[in-house]
Design goal:
Elements (H helix, E strand, L loop, with lengths): L6 E5 L3 H13 L3 E5 L2 H10 L4 E5 L7 H11 L5 E5 L4 H9 L4 E4 L4 H15 L21 H14 L5 E4 L6 H11 L7 E5 L5 H9 L16 H4 L4 E5 L6 H13 L1 E2 L8 E2 L3 E6 L3 H6 L5 H7 L2 E4 L9 H17 L5 E2 L1 H9 L5 H15 L4 E2 L1 H9 L8 H19 L4 H8 L3 H10 L10 H5 L4 H11 L1
Parallel strand pairs: 1-2, 1-3, 3-4, 4-5, 6-11, 6-12, 7-8, 8-11, 13-14
Antiparallel strand pairs: 9-10
Helix pairs in contact: 2-3, 6-7, 13-15, 14-16, 15-16, 17-18, 18-19, 19-21
Bound molecules: adenosine-5'-triphosphate.
GO biological process, one term: regulation of DNA-templated transcription
Organism: Ramlibacter rhizophilus
GO molecular function, one term: DNA binding
């Protein structure tokens, strides 16, 4: 037996048959849940996801085909085998054409049924469903909700292909965590996983970040630079916030995906790349397309398969597991003895609104961990942290560093990357100002608009200034 622990949901209104079948399948090593109607099956599926549904066709109320249709919509990757005493060849053909995994006519041979079950399970769980090792791919993704189980089952299925995946979901729902998990479950797992946030990189820099550049391609290109496509060669590239990609780059990205080759800026040669693309967005790409901000041809290339992550409020049963997971992680990080949440504190967490999803939950748990003076986190602390949801716990040094960087970026944007003007506004001389830029790893050339960049002060000037200072 390839999957002895698989969970099967049985649906039949005949109690004797239900009992008999349950006993047979349990004896064969499966975990069996049995319900008498389609309605009961759907309620069951809302709380627990089996690996297979085995249903009679004739049922009171909704019949087995209607149940199948509903399962198709709500849990597309869940296989269904139908059983009937009234089976006819045309019914069977129709059912399998609609996507039912299999169809057996009663009385069926027990061996035939077990074979069918094995086949369905083998097809839908590409790796043998055997314990912990099989779960390693999603070890970082903590969840117990059936909605997430559904997303994960699909992710696991598509991981083995090279299909481009589009991950949709609000900010902080775990799109990047899921992208990593897909990479880990894929044949590319041993090759690099590279993530780039297309919304966080200035347009002038994004192209060279993605595709690379040759020395001298633009003012600050002091050496050849490999792009992220090449860095991810053989592996997976996550294009995060793809909805923020500027239109000019959308065209170039499309060409790279079509030709499976990149041409670094300033080079006349294309370099072949073998990269699986996962893109992610919290924006409504359909609306962006309708508004002419996102190319339709690129959309279809990126979106061979879509996975949508539910918000945290849509899967509240994940809140306690996530909160405890973060608590234990943070307790270890801060060297604190923290044992858990007081029951009323946990209740406050599970009933809160969570507009910032899992990221916000992490921030709240981080605050309460930092502030708690007792091993059990009290309600008052959780309430306080929930009232200030945006606050991230940073050390003074980290906060100062972040402020400095944002301040310098603001000045450079204001002055179009003119260091002399920016230094004057900051009340520092140029050499001091260059030092500050270097500390924050900022390059003024990135802030010049293209027309200015062509005639901008060469990078040598920056070097000279630093050298002068010794
Ligand atoms: N299921 C999960 N289990 C454990 N940690 C999670 C889970 N989901 C999200 N996180 C954590 O929450 C934070 C936000 O997750 P992530 O960056 O993947 O979200 P996102 O959807 O990509 O957000 P954005 O759209 O803002 O980029 C990260 O610190 C991540 O580790």
């Amino acid at each position: 037996m390839s999957s002895p622990k698989a969970r099967i949901l049985l649906v039949d209104d005949d109690p004797d048959l239900l009992r008999l079948l349950s006993m047979r399948l349990s004896a064969a090593g499966y975990q069996v849940s049995a319900v008498p109607s389609a309605e009961a099956a759907l309620s069951h599926l809302a709380v627990e996801r089996p690996q297979l549904v085995l249903s009679d066709v004739r049922l009171p109320g909704r019949d087995g085909m209607a149940l199948f249709d509903e399962i198709r919509t709500r849990h597309p990757s869940l296989p269904v085998i139908l059983l009937t005493a009234h089976g006819t060849i045309p019914d069977a053909v129709e059912a399998t054409a609609r996507g039912v995994f299999g169809y057996l006519t009663k009385p069926y041979e027990p061996r035939e049924l077990l074979d069918k079950i094995e086949q369905a399970l083998a097809l839908t769980s590409p790796a043998p469903a055997a314990g912990r090792a099989d779960e390693a791919w999603r070890a970082e993704l903590i969840s117990r909700s059936s909605r997430m189980a559904e997303v994960l089952a699909e992710a696991r299925l598509i991981a083995s292909s090279d299909a481009s995946v589009l991950l949709r979901g609000d900010s902080g729902t775990g799109k990047e965590v899921l992208a990593r998990a897909i990479h880990r479950a894929s044949p590319r797992a041993k090759k690099p996983f590279v993530a780039v946030n297309c919304g966080a990189i200035p347009e002038a820099l994004l192209e060279s970040e993605l595709f690379g550049h040759m020395k001298g391609a633009f003012t600050d290109a002091v050496s050849n630079h490999k792009g992220l496509f090449q860095a991810a060669d053989g592996g997976t590239l996550l294009l995060d916030e793809i909805g923020d990609m500027p239109p000019a780059l959308q065209v170039k990205l499309l060409r790279v995906l079509q030709e499976r080759a990149v041409r670094p800026l300033g080079s006349s040669q294309s370099i072949p790349v073998d990269v699986r693309i996962i893109s992610a967005t919290h924006r409504d790409l359909d609306a962006a397309m309708a508004a002419g901000q996102f190319r339709e041809d690129l959309y279809w290339r990126l979106n061979v398969v879509t996975l949508s992550l539910p918000t945290l409020a849509q899967r509240r049963e994940d809140i306690p597991v996530l909160a405890n997971h973060f608590l234990h992680k943070l307790a270890a990080k801060y060297g604190r003895r923290l044992s858990g949440f007081a029951p009323e504190a946990m209740k406050a967490l599970t009933t809160s609104a969570w507009p910032g999803n899992v990221r916000q939950l992490y921030n709240v748990v981080e605050q309460v961990c930092a502030l708690s003076t007792t091993p059990l986190i009290p309600l008052a602390l959780v309430q306080r942290a929930l009232r200030a949801p945006g606050v991230e716990v940073l050390t003074y040094a980290e906060a100062k560093q972040r402020f400095e960087r944002e301040y310098l970026v603001g000045l450079l944007k204001l002055t179009d990357g003119n260091v002399a003007d920016a230094a004057r506004l900051a009340g520092r001389n140029r050499t001091e100002f260059y030092r500050l830029l270097q500390k924050s790893e900022l390059t003024p050339g990135l802030f010049k608009n293209e027309a200015v960049a062509a005639s901008a002060a060469p990078v040598a000037e920056q070097r000279r200034s630093l050298d002068e200072e010794g």
